[in-house]
Automatic annotation (TrEMBL):
The keyword rRNA-binding does not apply. GO terms for cellular component: mitochondrion. This is GTP-binding protein 8. Pfam families: MMR_HSR1. The gene is Gtpbp8. One of its GO terms (molecular function) is GTP binding. Its cofactor is Mg(2+). Residues 110-283 form the EngB-type G domain. PROSITE patterns: G_ENGB. CDD domains: YihA_EngB (cd01876). It comes from Peromyscus maniculatus bairdii.
Length: 285
């Protein structure tokens, strides 16, 4: 079965997977880790470690570090623990808290906070919806039309942290975007990490560059997420990843050197990202 050759701990996690029968698709359509662990190894790597899967297509003499993917390399046990942080239960309430158009309207909380910024339509709300797929009562609105999210939307993840879905910059951005988002990024004291989403099909645009410069200027610790990876061929995605990785390595100071490619459709990369968020907010202790 698919477990052969997998890392320690995976076998035990597999035992907890429900008996589902053979997996019919090329990748996961289920957000639950236990079900992902039942996939054949190739598909499993693609869902849990998309960079590792891409790296296999690099020629061997290109040298290490071309894709910085092993800085954050959690065990499957950590991924399972992170999953429980993101799973709603009676004791772990995951809920929409409030929306704000100004920082002084934001809920005042002591919990660590993470926020998601990026161009309108890049997939911020879709990603948050995918992160909350085990909390189906939480409503996160997504739309084909850019500029859908107009306010900062705050969500509480149990006793662990809050997560903020931001309006997008660029096309149909709200008028007060700059006041709202810049002030938030500059002054929110419990903000632990900013996740900057870049469309993997489009690459880093001029507008993304402005956001990157803002993160750098405010000395924010930020992380680049590459969205919509289900939309490209492997070859194209690899080219984009290498280009963006080079940019991060040479042009940024505050950006975490490991990229997080994700698809909110196939859940590829979403489990790893959940684990990273749980880790940076101190939720895995
Ligand atoms: N194929 C694919 N489509 C995606 C993915 N993520 C988002 N989309 C689509 O992209 C569009 C925009 O998604 P949203 O999540 O609303 O984007 P947003 O960044 O929140 O946009 P604003 O709220 O306008 O700033 C929708 O049509 C989504 O279905 C993805 O991973 N794969
Ligand atoms: Mg949105």
């Amino acid at each position: 079965m698919a477990a052969a050759g997998l890392r320690p701990g995976m076998g035990r996690l597999l035992e907890t997977a429900p008996a589902l029968g053979p997996w019919p698709r090329l990748y996961s359509t289920s957000p639950a880790l236990a079900e992902v662990l039942r996939l054949p190894q190739k598909q499993l790597t693609k869902v849990l470690y998309p960079l590792r899967e891409l790296e296999q297509h690099l020629v061997s003499d290109t040298g290490p570090g071309l894709i910085e993917q092993r800085l954050f390399d959690p065990s499957l046990e950590d991924m399972a623990r992170a999953e429980s942080v993101f799973a709603a239960t009676a004791r772990n309430r995951i809920e929409y808290l409030s929306s704000a158009v100004r920082l002084d309207h934001a809920p005042s909380l002591q919990q660590p906070e993470v926020c998601f910024i990026g161009r309108s339509n890049v997939g911020k709300s879709s990603l948050i919806k995918a992160l909350f797929s085990l909390a189906p009562d939480v409503e996160v609105r997504v739309s084909k039309k850019p500029g859908h999210t107009k306010k900062m939307n705050f969500f509480k993840v149990g006793k662990y942290f809050t997560l903020v879905d931001m309006p997008g910059y660029g096309y149909r951005a709200p008028e007060d975007f700059v006041d709202m988002v810049e002030t938030y990024l500059k002054e929110r004291t419990n903000l632990k990490r900013t996740f900057l989403l870049v469309d993997s099909v489009v690459g880093i645009t001029k507008l993304d560059n402005i956001a990157i410069e803002m993160c750098e200027e405010f000395a924010l610790p930020y992380v680049m997420i590459l969205t919509k990876i289900d939309r490209s061929s492997k070859g194209y995605l690899l080219k984009q990843v290498l280009q963006i990785q080079k940019f991060v390595n040479t042009q940024t100071q505050g950006c975490f050197p490991q990229l997080f490619p994700i698809s909110s459709v196939t859940y590829s990369g979403v489990h790893l990202l959940k684990c990273f968020i749980a880790d940076v907010t101190g939720s895995l202790k």
